[in-house]
Amino acid sequence: MSGRLVRALAPLALVVTGGCFATRSDMRVLQGDILNFRTEAARADSARARQVAAVAAALGTVADSVRAASDRLARFQGDTRGDLRSIQQQLLQVQELTGQSQRRLQELRAEMEARPPQAVVPPVAPVPGDTAAAAPVQAAPGPNQLYQLAYDQLRRGSYSAARAGFEELLRLYPTSELAPDAQINIAESFAAEGTNSAADSAYAAVVAKYPRSTRAATALYKLALSMARQGKRPDARSAMDRVVREYPQSDEADLAREWLRTNR
Asked: Is the pLDDT of residue 87 over 70?
């Protein structure tokens, strides 16, 4: 209890206890003290009310700022997602166009090689009456022509015929730039038939024979997926780690990182 309240109540106590000893002057003092107490209490309540209002206003400002920041973040995230979708669509279009261009270029090369070659006449003079010696020697199909023929068979689902064509290409042109593609397509033909062990061996052969080819990362990634489908999780993780470690700039490395993240 405050000192002022005590002083205000002191005369009242005298009135209660002493009765006749209280004077009119004491009552006026008591009334004045009570009035002052009420005034100070009202002033303190007003000050507290102003403080509460100020705090509420500040909290309202903070809440508005938080809402505005949240709205800006949501718009930014929406814009970013939209931009990413647009970029992905453009990349897909570029990849599709690039793939079409590469296929068309391959077809043109195959067409060039498929043109009737000029007869190669033996350098020795033919023996009279020996028709075999004078027969022209036809050139073998080129690597692009062999690849296109085999690839057409692969797309038709004639996997054995496709493998035969790709294997012939590898036999005749082992150093061709198409050799890694031929080898990975052999693996794809086995995978399409469900012959997992043969497919895995063919994928591994791409990495072993053509480690610097861009197809090596693809073959190693597909080998890892094949192992995962067969339940060989440790082997699959090891192959995915190799993709990331040996071909860090490839698209397959990004896919391998995502696989490793979601398959702990």
From this structure: no
In this structure, what CATH number is given to the domain that contains residue 219?
1.25.40.10
Closest CA to 243 of 229, 225, 263: 225
| Residue 136 placed within a domain | no
Question: Do 134 and 126 contact (CB within 8 A), yes or no?
Answer: yes
Q: Give a three-class secondary structure readout of 35-73.
A: HHHHHHHHHHHHHHHHHHHHHHHHHHHHHHHHHHHHHHH
Can you give the C-alpha Rg of the chain in angstroms? 46
d(CA 190, CA 188): 5
Give the distance, in angstroms, between the CA of residue 2 and the centroid of all CA atoms in the same chain: 70
Q: For 195-213, write each residue's pLDDT tens digit.
A: 999 999 999 999 999 999 9
| Domain region containing 37 | 3-112
Query: How many residues are given for the chain?
Result: 264
User: Is the pLDDT at 108 greater than 50, yes or no?
Assistant: yes
* Eight-state DSSP code of residue 123: S
One-letter amino acid of 67 = R
Per-residue tokens: 258: 């995502």
Distance CA 22, CA 30 (A): 11
CA distance 196 to 35: 99
pLDDT tier at 11 (50, 70, 90 boundaries)? low
